[in-house]
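EI: anyone free to look at a 443-residue chain?
SC: sure, send it
EI:
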Amino acid sequence: MSGFQDVRDVMDISGPIEGMPRPPPAKKQKTVEKRPDGITRELFALLGENPPPVAIVENKFKEKPRWMGKANPWVWKGFKNEARHDDLILHHWERKTDASDDLTYQFSKFDVKVDVPEYIDDEYEILKNDEWSRDETNYLLSMCREYDLRFPIIWDRYEWPDKNRSLEELKARYYAVCRGLMELRTPVGQMTPEETIAYNLTNFEKDREVTRRAMAERQFNKTDEQIREEEMLLTELKRIIGNQEKMYEERRDLFQRLNYPGTSGSIAAYTGSQGLAHLRDMMLSTNDKNKKRKSIALGQANGGSDAAQQTPTSANSTDRGGVPGSSKDRDGKEAKRQVRKLTKEEEMNYGVSQHEKLSSGVKLRSALISSNVKGATAAKVATALAQLGIAQKLTMPTARTVQKYEQLQSAVGVLLDSKKLLEKMEHEARILKAQLDLREQES
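SC: here you go
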């Protein structure tokens, strides 16, 4: 039998062999779960292999902590607080370490002071203000340094003889001093990005802040009735704005219809020079036919009276002397004789204008106003015209009015550019003058 098994192994034949006893099946190993604490053996046996439906948790006290080392000792140590200037030595309990006996307080790094600027005599000459004396300015800066620029506290503690300053006045004076010192010490064009950000933050608008505070106070003091009325007005405003957007949509649709008129047929035949010449001949012939029909109708209406007034002599002379086509020549000469060139004043009075090239479609003259000012100056020009009470869309956009409006736009743009250049030159002149004074004092 062993030889037969060897042959099967050599030929790699697997499977049961007839006549040989089969090995008994492996028994299923039972996993014995550990019985949790707090439950009896009989109750746990009733559960069987199924897990318990409710988690069984026994209330126990917290285990005793296991310390791995010895307790660190604490010492009564003295220290100096850098926020004080009287060299007072205070004491507190501190964990004992191998560090040196340094008396520096570990929390002194949180004592951050505000950098309030200081000026010299020459710098104050440029920072002068008629409403502020130098002593009062120094007092304001000392208060800002003492209370870390908390302006509500500064305003509450501010006391100066015969002066009752508002919070906005204190802020305006402080930021004006900071901004002026930054301009004197470093020109605007040579500032780093960090200095530029700090310089822009010192731009305090006093009037705007006063208006904002007044609006906030009025909003805070409103009654419930006023609040309900305001909500009703806001709802009405939203409805008006919605209708206005719908009206703007309809207006844009109308402009598109005017600018792009629809055509029923193809215009490909009239795109070339020959097609245009043919179209012109057709229009002239149609016009001549209409004139001829009108003249025939007028002749039939007045035919009886003209025939009665005409004499035989005049008729015979017309038949004898008339040449075919002579009446047309006479009409052409009379038309040429009647045509005359209008003067500029007459063209202006009659509204006659001549154009070299016109685009197709119907357009409104107010939509063809071209702005001669480009870039960022265009928005400033629009703002200046709005302040003057001049609308962007003219009520009566005649050719002369449009021309004058474009000239006004150009003039306002030149004026704004000149103003900007003047401010820049004055600023550079002040800086150079201050630098020159500093050099003279140093020398």
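EI: The chain has a mean pLDDT of 78.
SC: 👍
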